[in-house]
């Protein structure tokens, strides 16, 4: 506490390296971090934050080995720092795709948006897009739209599991594409059948982009998937 109050960063580092309690407050409720902030000792603040949130620090540099060890030791994958940023948000801010992938595999919340500050409302996907990290954007979209991804490859087993786990059968992407639209666009009849059996909207059309207004039936026709066309027509006939 005294080292942080006086701005002695090397002394603070030595104490932390030897197990000093970083969160301990004095009788007034002040912690080493709060006192360093009030005195505007930015280097000490950075040092303390690194010790308080080591998973965030590792995500910031993309240190997969350190992140793996921290997670194995019980680090909370979705713990937010004082700015509300999760390790995934930071990994996406810095463009570390492997770090983001690891966190997603460990169950990180892909939709977590900041609740305050200059980046209020921004999710990992938004911040990755704004910074031009296309590989991170692709990874996040694949995770967000997992049912779409499974429909694109016709992986019925994966689709069944996702639906059983609560995936929204009519979730739309930015252009309005549903999993059914994707299945019909790529000609996967078994995937389309499963989605229809689960109540997918057969008439859902794209809302924007070069294929705006096209329905699953239209795209299946245009791509020459006659068996998918027959399936959709049969379903439409039964509905009407």
UniProtKB/TrEMBL annotation:
<feature type="repeat" description="ANK">
    <location>
        <begin position="1"/>
        <end position="27"/>
    </location>
</feature>
<protein>
    <submittedName>
        <fullName>Uncharacterized protein</fullName>
    </submittedName>
</protein>
<feature type="repeat" description="ANK">
    <location>
        <begin position="147"/>
        <end position="174"/>
    </location>
</feature>
<keyword id="KW-0677">Repeat</keyword>
<feature type="repeat" description="ANK">
    <location>
        <begin position="175"/>
        <end position="207"/>
    </location>
</feature>
<feature type="repeat" description="ANK">
    <location>
        <begin position="83"/>
        <end position="115"/>
    </location>
</feature>
<keyword id="KW-0040">ANK repeat</keyword>
<dbReference type="InterPro" id="IPR036770">
    <property type="entry name" value="Ankyrin_rpt-contain_sf"/>
</dbReference>
<feature type="repeat" description="ANK">
    <location>
        <begin position="50"/>
        <end position="82"/>
    </location>
</feature>
<dbReference type="Pfam" id="PF12796">
    <property type="entry name" value="Ank_2"/>
</dbReference>
<dbReference type="InterPro" id="IPR050889">
    <property type="entry name" value="Dendritic_Spine_Reg/Scaffold"/>
</dbReference>
<dbReference type="InterPro" id="IPR002110">
    <property type="entry name" value="Ankyrin_rpt"/>
</dbReference>
